[in-house]
Amino acid sequence: MKKWIALVLVLVIECMNLSEIKMEYISKSKAAEKNYDLSNPRLVGNSPTWDCVYFGNYWQEDTNGDGVADEKDDKQPIRWRVLSVDGDDAFLISDKILLRSSPTDVHGGELVTWENSNIRKLLNSTFLSQAFSVEERDAIYSTIVENNIHPYFKTTCGKNTIDKVYCLSYEEAVDAKYGLYGFNSNDTRSLSRSADTTAYAYGEKEELLYYWLRTTGRDNKYIKRWIGIKPDSGRLHGVVQTNIWAGIRPVLHLNLAKNNLWKKAGTVSAGRLQQNNISEIESPIVVNDIPIWHCIYFGSYWQTDTNNDGRADTKDEKEPIKWRILSKEDNVVYLISDKALDYRQLEENYSGWSTSEIRNWLNQEFCSAAFSNQQLKSIKETATEQNTKDNISMLQCDDDTFFTSGFNAIKEGLVGKNLEGIENIAYNTDFARQKSNGEKANWLVGKGAETFCDSNGYYTQLAQSDGTRGAYSIRPTLTLDLTDKENWSYAGTVDGAGNVKENEIIKTPVPTSTPNIAPDSIQTENPKNTSTPRPNGLKQGMEIKLPNSKKNVTTFMKGNIKYKKIGKSKKVKVEGVKSKKLVSVVIPNKVSFQGKTYIVSAVGNGAFKNCKKLLSIQFKSKSLKSIGKYAFQNCKKLNIIWLKNSKKIKSVGKKCLKGIPKGQCTIKVPKAKLKIYGKLFKNKG
Questions:
Q1: DSSP letter string over 248-264?
Q2: Is the pTM of this model over 0.70?
Q3: What torsion do the CA atoms of 254, 260, 265, 271 make, to the nearest 10 degrees?
Q4: What is the pLDDT of residues 31-74, one digit of tens each?
Q5: CA distances (Å), 670 to each of 5, 9, 393, 541, in order?
């Protein structure tokens, strides 16, 4: 009798809970680090360093300018430090102290343990619902929280609990594997435990003296204590359990497979943003004739479909804006958005930049939507060629900055010509693309919005004689003072060929007699290199691998997935994977290669065969029509195949589910396709 697998085809609903209980401590996993480009804590020099992610949103700063940080302000993305990563599980602690409470407000009572504390109730009810959406809450693992007896004071810490959000224990707070160093019998100080406090956590009180661990401290007949940590020094203290001057740094376990819910957020070193070291940031450099820009996150704006309603619009959550650094002088940088952030119709009766609608929109509506009052204070007015001073403007092609900005220069007589620079090409955010219907941007540039750069990198003069000016994508520029490091975070680098390095600082190398060794595909340029320097005066730097430029290439890699072109059409199929050790896979609706965009329309035979660690696979393609035979054969841990957006599947190959344990795999499909897809997947195990 042939083996078969029972499939449960379900309607995908918004409140689906896919959480599971984690039974043991997190262990170090190199494979996991590579899978999500997140690392376990490590020492850089003598400083413990953590990768960070953004996940959830909570009140933090005074965004409305009324002088108080409270629930009338906008919620902002929460930055978390990665204490450990193992497979899909990331153990996180908030970068800052987010809120305040005490274990109990009953004075003179018995010792309260974690199980019955006000803090536990607050974190797993009010905070959980206020900081995370339903989908985000489902991405947080329920965790068995061990409440061991204090190793020195021998005080009871109560029963073990099962929580989604909790606080560190004493043992965890001094565990070097989490990057928390510095404890011995004579010294309890450690900057690795230090933390800043949000304005919301301060509230109306002028200071916050500690943040809580969940471990009880030394007590006597009259005074009951918990362990607290001094935010400035990291020193461990016994704190009376009713103390109102202490706050909370929540911890949780995040399911990284829900990678649409979190984003990388640079690194933090010993309580400070290591890559917010201003001296490490440079103006653009040239690598094998391709410019490289350092990037930062600053402000937030609507960009992607965060609420999963099928549209990227103002109903979604704002997300951090990534900016390229075009020039730097001391602590001041000139920035342009990495992607086109919006799409705007230009007025027909244009009479100059000073009175233009686009200038008013940038300096009023956009400013108000993208930046808090605190962030606006760091933006310096920029003088334009039209004798205006603006907080927000657009790239000025004829000023000196343009020739060292990393873009191909434009001069009189070159408008409309191909300047051979793929670095000029920009992409729309989903929010801008929703309005423009284009992946690549036609973005405004030049004197007073009188020129635009098209999707192929050509500069073209806007039509003016007939009054038709059209609509264009917007890449704002601004001048930012980096002195206030709380307003921005480092965002890696991006080059003119579209290659992104999220957690890497690239500096102009100093030639030495001994060749330098750079990570990954970056190699130190031979000091004797005689290549002709670019005329714009950018620095020659390191050498990188360029995208494959061979003609008639039929297969290519995007991330860990191999795609194959289908004939001469603009469609591709998923052909295979780079590594059989993948844990989670997301297949997009479209992929780009050599300047062309292809629709993902099929899964090839044996595409994921023998991926024995694969837990989930999500297909975002709306044009998926076929799944080949043996596609998921021997994916022994696969429990989710997500076909929520795929309404056009006509065929499923034989034995595509062979080797998956009976009853394990859940296939999530659109409601209208429940019956049809049930027949397609029947007897395919």
A1: E--EEEEETT-TTSEEE
A2: no
A3: -20
A4: 334 478 888 888 765 568 888 999 999 999 888 888 888 999 99
A5: 21, 9, 44, 51
